[in-house]
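Batch manifest, entry 17 of 40.
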Amino acid sequence: MMSTEGRGLVLEENLLFEQSQPGRIGYSITSLDVPAACPDSSLIREEIAGFPELSEVDVVRHYTRLSTWNYGVDSGFYPLGSCTMKYNPKVNEAVARFPGFADIHPQTPEALNQGALELMYNLQRDLCEISGFPAMTLQPAAGAQGEFAGMLMIRAWHEANGQKRHKVIIPDTAHGTNPASAALCGYDVVTVASDGILSKEAIAAVMDDDVAALMVTNPNTLGLFEADIREICDLVHERGGLVYSDGANLNAMMGISRPGDLGIDAMHFNLHKTFSTPHGGGGPGSGPVGVADKLKPFLPAPYVVKGADGYKQEYNCPQSIGRLKSFYGHFGILVRAYSYILSMGGEGLKRATELAVLNANYIRARLEGEYDLPNKQRSLHEVVFSEDALQNECHTLDVAKRLIDYGYHPPTIYFPLVVHGALMIEPTETESKQTLDEFCDALLAIAEEAKTSPALLKQAPVRAKVKRLDEATAARKPKLRWELE
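Output type: structure tokens
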């Protein structure tokens, strides 16, 4: 049972188990018009002890009420740094629901599937143009699987050249999935420290003939562009290594800088971030990977090609790393991303990047001073503050919890790990100055509360339906399901 305050009353929000009343039924089944089946008794489940008895309206009202408690990008500003939780234009949703896209069966013969294949082919070409890579696979189902695919291709390329390299260099400002992807491919991870920006000297100090690749996030998780990336790529290439770029932060480069032109050999996209398709709630995602010419033979099979007789999926790929996913990735997300690209056009994509960078720097300018800014380089799409300027033993977690009282979803906190008490904010290009001002006003008010009313921050949230949890106990002894007393 949860308590929530409303209009001076304490309202009890009962769980479905607590709403149960004996004899209530939420369904009706018509009489059988065929002989009843008699399965083996071992296949029949016993009655579930304590299973709630509810009417249809009980269940509908319960879940509808819960849905109004959820926070999403359609209900408010979502400043979730490094995840690009930006508004999803509804035209993309409408296009993805066209029957020819939404209802098509993945085993439809190619001759009857030309529209879907043409869309995928055109999306491959568009992503190649945006990123500067000559070849593309749309198959990976998420960014992390895209990383995995890219590293598998890099490994396959080294093996095809008779090399058994076993190390991957990863800066401390890379995304957290990068080390896992390298390890899954059998590599030892070599972590390189950076001072906000990765230096050529730091890479040169660890680069040797055992290094298969450098995995770099650019812009990195501090929202900073790796200014020496061209020289760093040259340095890695001179020793026979390749460079993989995590493209999750492409929202800061789209239409302005192309990773393929900077010497990158492989990069994954997050279509569910940069290209404004639904993100969060467990998915779905999409992580296409663009590659340089040298890696094209190793692309996952199949990929879409255009021939004299139309479009088809190419399976004749003897050096391919193989299939990554059944059928062809998350097709609905591909449709949404293609719709976004067509509706925005080249100039629109560039303008989106410019506004994303402008918005992040506007927040930076308004909050700097009240919140500590550990890195002084110009921010791109996101800005990372630390908790060091907060007073009276208030911490980043307290700020995040208090933001809930002001009606905002908290931004990313305590990541990246290289910043003490990190508060990472990414406004994206979709937010107005009015929204940003209201959000900054809330954060400035919270900084003032840290000075004058620190106890209030440490109790927050005080207006939410669920008050502050004992997070240590929740992490160590999670109670993941309701249990009958």
